[in-house]
Write a structure and sequence with these properties.
The chain is 7% helix and 46% strand. It is mainly beta.
Length: 281
Amino acid sequence: MITHDTPVLRVAGRPVARYVTRPELPARLSPRPYLHPVTTLAGTAVTDLSPVDHTHHLGVGVAVPDVEGHNFWGGRTYVREQGPTELDNHGAQRHSTFQLRDPDGFVEELRWVASGAELLRERRTVAATELTDTAWALDFTFSLTNVTPDLLSIGSPATNGRPGAAYGGFFWRARKEAETPSVFTADHEGEPEVHGTRADWLALAGTGWTLVFAGATDRTRHDPWFVRTAEYPGVGASLATDERLPIPPGDTAVRRIVTVVADGCLSRAEAAALVRKAVNQ
């Protein structure tokens, strides 16, 4: 897999993430920039790239399965009353420029293109911050602006007729391990209990590592969590759950997710404390 221009994010001088801006990928994978590998401060990898179970899962980034019928997620498209279907409808996110680029983060402009036309323009802000000797935070904001003269709407398999499959938006594909990771919020535990719920934060804990995800704005916290642990380890925040998300011409949809990346298996109290520090600093 050939890549070009890959900034490395550092925390206290240590590399913790690589950002691939121009991956050379088949159109079916909906090519897009992504973070991989992302590691803990001790060097444990907590992302996966094109795993066998879902080759279109690309580390950490933004992926949307339905923008006016165009697939920016990769793989098959869920068609109502038909199910997952192979379609030639894949879009691509194209890196335009870095408006700011530092060792601990960047501000990037991207173009979301499908069928030869630009649909959305994205401003992406990513920052890495040290929290403790064993934890750091990835602050990830994306702003999607409709640059067409028409109303655009974002959908998901859930809005297209597949209950429980409201994926699309910020998505983190974690590394698959021999044991299924645990997942919990302040009040609930286990995939059946936390998937599709709204919670201020959600933790995914594997072998010697914990990821704690938090919506950092009121609007972001309104989005339910998309969670998988049994089939594969992945967490996202759903842009379109019960109905499509409309973006009128010239309007912008903004979301901000802060993720704590920690060594060790955190308790609820530890996860909550680190999230508060990460979001409020």
